[in-house]
Amino acid sequence: MTKKSLIKLYCYRVAQLLRLVPSVWMLRNPFKIYECQELMRDSGLSAGDSILALGCGRGMQTQLLAESCSSAVGVDTSEEQIGYANLFVRHSRVEPKVKFICSTLQQARLPGGSFDKVFSFCVLEHIPKLHEVLKELHRILRVAGELHVTVDSLSSIDDPQLIQQHQREHQVVQYFTPETLKAQLESAGFRLRECRFIMTGSFATARFQLRIQGNQPVVALLARRSFVRRLRVEDAATLGNRGIMLLARAEAV
């Protein structure tokens, strides 16, 4: 573990002792904060739900989800990320409800019909054989189980070179439109209930382009709140026919 990671872990332990985490504000990227808030809002999470977080990374969103459900499983293919996830969940108030698995979804061989909801925060666009993964999600969800996802669209960015740079640096297999996302979900046995763009305004587009270019500085906590508020105000005021991401909710049928 790097010195930077050790310092971050120490600060996180202090925040745990002060009962300040899990909190969405432990995410440093304001785009991810807003994405997480939007996907969790109106997801209907309840205390009896069993949920899966696909591509959980360091597990911060999984911990947030665990606050509102009975159990949460995070799956990721990166040993390093799952290692961090287990470190950060240790001593957390949600630790008894959380389990992390280092595996592909197919190799994890989770029991069929064992989850009420699946959450995925901008993961589907990185999966080469997405249809296989979507079929497996359908299998492990209970009848009428729900899939809540965000995916990259970047439809509001008109510079093809920036999109190519983002695709190359983040190993993006595909960017989604409402039509392509709907078609792939329905092909795997899901019925789409909601699909809409988020981060639809000029502020979101300009700041995301800066991130791609590597010119976006770390945003301090108070500035993060203002940043997220700006994204929300823009989305409320914009027609939303283009955006950085798509948010979708679907039901297993």
List keywords for this structure.
seven-stranded mixed sheet; alpha/beta; 7 strands; 253 residues
Can you put this structure into words, describing what you see?
The protein has helices at 3-17, 30-40, 60-66, 79-89, 105-108, 130-140, 160-169, 178-187, 202-213, 221-237, and strands spanning 50-54, 71-76, 98-102, 115-121, 141-152, 190-198, 245-252. It has 253 residues and is α/β, with parallel strands linked by helices. Helix 2 packs across helix 10 (221-237). The radius of gyration is 18 Å and the shape is globular.
Structural class: alpha/beta
Tell me the quaternary state: single chain
Total strands = 7
Uncertain segments are none
> Helix tally?
10
Helicity level? 40-55%
Mean pLDDT: 95
Strand content: 15-25%
Shape descriptor reads globular
Order of helical and strand elements = HHEHEHEHEHEHHEHHE
| Adjacency order of strands in the biggest sheet | 3-2-1-4-5-7-6
| Separation, N- and C-terminal Cα atoms | 44 Å
Give Rg in angstroms. Answer: 18 Å
